[in-house]
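User: My notes are a mess, but here's the protein and zinc ion's SMILES. Can you give me a structure?
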Amino acid sequence: MSNQPITDPRPISDDPCPRCGESSMKDPPEINALSRTTRGKDDDPIWVCSDCGRDEAMEDFFALGATHPNFWPMARKYDKVFTVDWDGLESA
Ligand SMILES: [Zn+2]
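Assistant: No problem, the inputs look usable. Here's the predicted complex:
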């Protein structure tokens, strides 16, 4: 037995998320979010960052479904839904 700490040998991906263009993808790709636009039986999977996965879920719920990859990169639409401005609440 070695006393060396156990470290994950897999690299952290530097690839930007294809949906938002931010460098927030993780390795392996399967721990990111599978885009809701590529969940069909014959679709090639496209992985997006966790924040975009949540944004696609909000699009599915509040809009007419997740934005097709043809319109990527795009800004996330629902980030503000999850942002609480505590300072603003105190002064309101
Ligand atoms: Zn993203």
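Residues 17, 19-20, 22, 48-49, 51-52 surround zinc ion (CB under 6 Å).
User: Great, I'll file this with my notes.
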